[in-house]
Write a structure and sequence with these properties.
Helix content is 38%, strand content 16%. Strand 13 (376-379), helix 15 (384-391) and strand 14 (400-401) form a beta-alpha-beta unit. 50% of the residues are buried. The protein is of the alpha/beta class and 548 residues long. The chain has helices spanning 3-13, 28-35, 47-61, 73-76, 79-88, 114-118, 134-146, 159-162, 183-195, 210-223, 256-262, 314-324, 334-347, 360-370, 384-391, 412-422, 434-439, 443-449, 465-473, 488-494, 505-516, 533-540; strands at residues 18-22, 40-43, 65-69, 92-98, 124-127, 152-158, 199-203, 227-229, 244-247, 265-269, 289-294, 308-311, 376-379, 400-401, 428-433, 454-460, 498-500, 521-527. The strands form 3 sheets. A 6-stranded parallel beta sheet has the order 2-1-3-4-6-5, with helices on both faces. Strands 9-8-7-10-11-12 form a 6-stranded parallel beta sheet, sandwiched between helices. A 6-stranded parallel beta sheet has the order 14-13-15-16-18-17, with helices on both faces. The N and C termini lie far apart (74 Å). The protein has 3 domains: 3-162, Rossmann fold, CATH 3.40.50; 183-342, Rossmann fold; 349-538, Rossmann fold (3-Layer(aba) Sandwich). The protein is built from 22 helices and 18 strands.
Length: 548
């Protein structure tokens, strides 16, 4: 068979459902091979959109999301997506084309060393130089992409190799299981927990798997140990649980840090220093003890040097903890429980505020009340991410998709599209700032063409709001961050979507309810008031006094 046919057969063997991308002339053999396949090609309007969709597919399913681009500028447009998947722990494969490598009459036209570019940003990056190697390369790449820590892989398929005649040699796919920690390690960890007076559980991005969530919920229910999460660990345990303190939305100075400062042991499950650390082990002598529970060893640096690692399958190791631990009379959780109530009171302060343009806290509250526990919100990147992390309580894993690793703009809309494709029976709302939305706004056409039922909310402040907040916090004058926007309602309509512009909080409530229960792509241009960002996040929290 032709090498491109073998490549598609290898992808089918891995269970690939979709390939997101924009083909070029160097991909035409592969495109022809795809035409006869059950794999669906999802044509996007920009390679970034394709890459973000593939990464989100991987994040939600645990399987490898696949995206396709041509050589040169098409492939370089994948750079941000590679970093997004790699830092965020999302399994994704990028396939790019290339000019003939055996004989070319076009010199160096459009040729960039894409494999060399991808190597620092991926777990695996190789060029196919012999079509008969395709099955082993695809199998190896998929295995590498999905094993912990998941991430991005890249295969470059030159057009002359794609057209070669090759032999069928598909490799079978085998399940991979992680080992459990040995009993000695488990016993040592259990002893650390039992000897602590105020242990506290921290849930990170690496724990955001359904089976781990079940094991952690049982652990919390059996031991009574309170918990909090990083931004990407939200929803692993239902955040409405009475033992949930909240999310570490800021690196320091939030109410949750009062609990972190009181803890004498942090049971750190699935955390990765790629996320901003929610606590700092500031000196070796008086450092809070940390128990690192993860698939991979801790990496020691100035802010993180755990005293004990428990490595292997997280769910199995947590189950061993639950079985072995005895509740201790010396444990004192009274402060944590009082603080949990205090945090809920503090964070709900502006939920009833009806000023318009809308406060971000109020917008978050409205979205949370409108959606069911299993419905999904995807975020772009902006200052509103902090308000969602603090105020949006998740009852299920992966129901608030935010990026606290690369923290890139432009991913919110494509992520929402992929989330809807993976979960067609759940309502999906993509929340974007006006800045981030415009970076990949052309994917509205893709969403309309795919017939998705999707609601897009643009929090519109006519500025790069996150950087304005940082600028203000550093005492600088407002400069260089205000911008203009198109008429977003007309813009949506030009793509065949339905545009809305609320004029009050009550109007937003009604419009949102109509949109999420309606058909088609809806865009809501929502004016937002960020005027309290500085006074709350910079001034009030810095002056807070922790409860006694």
């Amino acid at each position: 068979m032709k090498a491109s046919d073998l490549f598609v057969k290898a992808l089918e063997n891995e269970g690939v459902e979709y390939i997101f991308g924009i083909p070029g002339e160097e991909n035409l053999d592969l495109l022809e091979s795809l035409r006869e396949s059950d794999i669906k090609l999802i044509l996007t309007r920009h390679e970034q959109g394709a890459g973000f969709m593939a990464a989100t597919y991987g994040r939600l399913t645990g399987k490898v999301g696949v995206c396709l681009a041509t050589l040169g500028p098409g492939a370089t447009n994948f750079a941000t997506c590679a970093a997004y998947a790699q830092l965020g722990g999302m399994p994704m494969m990028m396939i790019t084309g290339q000019k003939p490598i055996k004989k070319s009459k076009q010199g160096r036209f459009q040729i960039v060393d894409i494999v060399g570019m991808m190597k620092p940003m991926t777990k695996y990056a190789k060029q196919v130089v012999n079509g008969n190697n395709i099955p082993s390369m695809v199998r190896e790449a998929f295995k590498i992409a999905t094993t912990e820590r998941p991430g991005a892989v890249h295969i470059e398929l030159p057009e002359d190799i794609a057209a070669e005649e090759v032999e069928d040699n598909i490799y079978p796919v085998h399940d991979f299981r992680y080992a459990n920690a040995d009993k000695g390690t488990i016993n040592k960890a259990v002893k650390m927990i039992e000897q602590a007076k105020r242990p506290l559980l921290l849930i990170g991005a690496g724990a955001n798997r359904t089976r781990i969530g079940d094991a952690l919920t049982d652990f919390v229910n059996e031991t009574g140990i309170p918990f909090f999460s990083t931004q990407m660990g939200k929803g692993v345990i239902d955040e409405n649980h009475k033992l949930c303190l909240s999310t570490a939305a800021l690196s320091k100075d939030d109410f949750i840090h009062c609990a972190i400062e009181r803890a004498d042991l942090i049971i750190n499950v699935g955390h990765d220093v790629i996320e901003k650390p929610p606590f700092f082990m500031e000196n070796h002598k008086d450092a809070t003890k940390v128990l690192h529970v993860n698939f991979f060893p801790s990496e020691v640096d100035d802010t993180y040097f755990p005293q004990q690692d428990v490595l292997g399958d997280i769910a199995s190791n947590i189950k061993q903890f639950t079985t072995a631990i005895s509740k201790q009379e010396t444990w004192d959780f009274d402060y944590y429980l009082r603080l949990a109530d205090e945090i809920k009171t503090r964070l709900s302060k502006y939920f009833s505020d009806t000023r318009f343009p809308i406060l971000p806290q109020k917008a978050v509250r409205t979205i949370r009340q409108t959606l069911a526990p299993k419905d999904i919100v995807t975020l772009d990147n902006g200052v509103y991410k902090i308000w969602f992390a603090r105020n949006y309580r998740c009852a299920e894993p992966n129901t608030l998709l935010l990026d606290n690793a690369l923290a890139t703009m432009g991913a919110g809309l494509p992520s929402g599209m992929a989330a809807k494709m993976v979960n067609p029976n759940q309502k999906v709302v993509a929340v974007c700032g006006d800045g981030g939305f415009m970076m990949n706004s052309q994917e509205l056409e893709t969403a309309v063409r795919l017939g998705l039922d999707l609601t897009v909310i643009i929090l519109n402040d006519n500025a790069y709001g996150m950087i304005k907040w940082k600028q203000s916090g550093m005492g600088f004058d407002n400069y260089g961050l205000d911008l203009g926007n198109p008429d977003f309602v007309k813009y949506a309509e030009s793509y065949g979507a339905i545009g809305h512009r609320p004029t009050s909080c009550e109007d937003f409530d009604q419009i949102l309810e109509k949109c999420v229960n309606g058909k088609g792509v809806h865009l809501i241009d929502l004016a937002v008031d960020y005027s309290l960002n500085h006074s709350i996040l910079n001034e009030l929290l810095a002056k807070k006094e922790c409860m006694l």
